[in-house]
Amino acid sequence: MADLINLTIDGVPVAVPKGTVIVDAAKKIGNDIPVFCYHPKLKPVGMCRMCLVEVGTPQIDRNTRQPMLDAEGKPVIAWMPKLQTACTTPVSEGMSVRTNTRQVLEARNDMLEFLLTSHPLDCPVCDKGGECPLQNLTMAHGPGVSRFDYEAKQHNAKHVPLGDLIFLDRERCIQCSRCIRFQDEVADDHVLQFHERGRHMEIVTFSDPPFDSLFGGNTTDICPVGALTTADFHFKARPWELDNTPSVCMHCPAGCNISLNTRLETHTGGHEIKRVMPRQNEHVNEIWICDKGRYVHHFSRAEDRITRPLVRDARGNLSESTWEAALQLAADRMRGRKVGGIIGDRLPNEDAWLFGRMFREVLKSAAVVMSPAIPAAYADIARTYGVGKDTDFKQLGKGDVILLVNGDLEQCAPVWFLRLRQAVVDRGARLVVAHDRPTKMHRYAARIDKYELGRAAHWASEQAKPLAEEFKSARNLLIVFGDEKLSAEGARSLARSLANILVESEHAGKANSGLLPLYPHGNTQGVFDALPSGGAMPERVDVAWLVGVGENNALPQSAFTVVQELFLTELTKQADVVLPALSFAEREGTFTSADRRVQRFYRALPALGQAKPDWWIIQELAQRLGAKWSFQDAGQVFGDLAAQNAQYTGLSYELLSRVESQWPPVGRSDLYYGGTVYDNTGGVGARYAAGAERAGFMAAVEWLTPPEADIEALQHLPRVLYQDGELIRRSKVLAGHIQFNETEIARAAR
Ligand code: SF4
Ligand code: SF4
Ligand code: FES
């Protein structure tokens, strides 16, 4: 490979790409040089001096300009007189590094002794205790005793709110600036800074509101001590008490990999999620998650979870029933009648697949739709002209174009915002933004097109041809788009115009090019894929069957309503039969992100009461209506989906759970290096091919004239991360962040 640099570290040869720093080169051969301020996802700053090593380079003969050789014919190494920081020193050809000499070991010892002069002995009560790099490195490299006077320690405030989601313990901070650098370099939210100098230096937030960022929780993961903790986890548990289960976030189209940390609560006798942490997947979220993904989990054990089936009694009240009675009643009312089904786009693939089969094969009707409805108008286009199977956001950079149309990327898919922003700012991709209002991505745009509110589809149909011409010379063309302020027809028209830009600029069906839709939730594509195509809801049905649709939905009129839900919502209160469903944390399944990566999530909590997985409930009803289904678990249902649905051919639970080595290795065992991110033990998932790739065709789609006035769509609120809804309302730490109206949304969107 070109540009590989050869060096030796403690005599062990290693070859790494040009530009690699010594710490990373050493990591490649399993040599863990201790670090505090260095983080492989941030630019090196050399602040803590923990990584000091001896560095030498080949001595060059002044006359011949060639490396000098010793008597044995080996290069003569000129050692630098002082120790060097391994985190800021890039490797060079022939370099020699020593990491285990007396001088190096003494320096580590001294640095730790120095750091501990102003660090409290909090470990027994510190939230980071048990997963703290400072603890671990002190044990490995620190002095057994300190020469400093314990009474001379600095004493600082220990519970400083940095906003309402993060607390700072000033005594514990070792001033590594990882938190500041994450906010500046990765999130581009300049909300933290150092204040004062020397031993009085401290972290402060200067934004209004304080710590104004959607990504603040990540600073608590990468803080190498217990200085930063989340309001959600502060004093809630010790890390070694927690079980760790791989899962997938379903609150936006990105599909971040997460770990659910759970514990049995002795005071309630039940299991709970104590915290949600990132799980490394360099294909998806690297090691980051947004604050919604981190804090919204409380709905999983909300007090108003339904734990038993409910049936409307003779007096008109919903009262507890048995599964047998409730299922029989629902099945009897469906038999031979016109049933209309709506399924929410946060339901896993397995549930949506059986729901679709139920309508196709048992009820023999296409009166089945997804909620929300608008994405179904363009999900087929997004699937056909979507990003190529081997797309890797990390490869986007110079020569590539990212076109962002009609969506606030940071609010709609926060982790994609982080990744695509880096493609533009750090690696030189060209960003073109078209929107009716400013969003954070506007900061990085090479060009901004502004259209009138609700006119995105008109803009695209007018601009498609010149844009296709302009983007022909681009190496790759990624088109990210949202359906904000559009009707179903408007959104379909927009998607078609954008697909045609790909076709006409000759980028359709290629890796690192294609459409990337900003769907509302984490399984919009998967639910769409699983339902029969062309489903439509009549105005009136005999029985409405609503599976995880939440609220605020356009429902058909019906004489009888069957609802599968987690909570007693306004909707469930109107139902005739309520069937309690398990949350994502209490079962297994798969989600398909908007870039068509199918990913597994696993059971982290025991079932609550008598609640059941939705696929099981659907199967029970199908059996009572004559179906001969006998799926024993979600894996078997997925097998059925993969066998019958062309997109999912070849996928299996086994394949989706495959793990691979990732760089940088910042999983759990490496917490000194990258923070408390979890290793990926649950699988990195697999992306299915886009239709254009599969068919190998590049045909244009039929243009669709956008509707002249999308009056109703103009009433919709733009999509934001902290949108009011059933789930976020049940998270106390996030409830105060909900944006209820356009003014709040505009303020948040900046
Ligand atoms: S709060 Fe943590 S991450 Fe931030 S400077 Fe202090 S020790 Fe480093
Ligand atoms: S970016 Fe999206 S998928 Fe990732 S944690 Fe946030 S809401 Fe979840
Ligand atoms: S100076 Fe190298 S890790 Fe801090």
Describe the structure.
By secondary structure, this protein is an alpha/beta fold. Among the domains are: 4-100, Ubiquitin-like (UB roll), CATH 3.10.20.740; 310-372 and 524-652, Rossmann fold (3-Layer(aba) Sandwich); 379-518, 3-Layer(aba) Sandwich (Dimethylsulfoxide Reductase, domain 2), CATH 3.40.228; 720-750, no CATH class. Helices cover 26% and strands 19% of the residues. The protein contains 23 helices and 29 strands. The strands form seven sheets. Strands 16-15-26-25-24-17-18 form a seven-stranded mixed beta sheet. α8 (349-362) links the parallel β17 and β18. α8 runs parallel beside α14. The mean pLDDT is 95.
Structural descriptors:
binds FE2/S2 (inorganic) cluster; 23 helices; about 750 residues; Rossmann fold; six-stranded mixed sheet; alpha/beta; 29 strands; about 20% strand; Dimethylsulfoxide Reductase, domain 2
Summed up:
With 750 residues, the protein is α/β, with parallel strands linked by helices.
> CATH topology of the domain at 310-372 and 524-652, what is it called?
Rossmann fold
Average pLDDT taken over every residue = 95
Q: Briefly, what CATH class of the domain at 310-372 and 524-652?
A: Alpha Beta
Number of strands: 29
What is the CATH architecture annotation of the domain at 310-372 and 524-652? 3-Layer(aba) Sandwich
- Stretches where pLDDT is under 50 for at least 5 consecutive residues are none
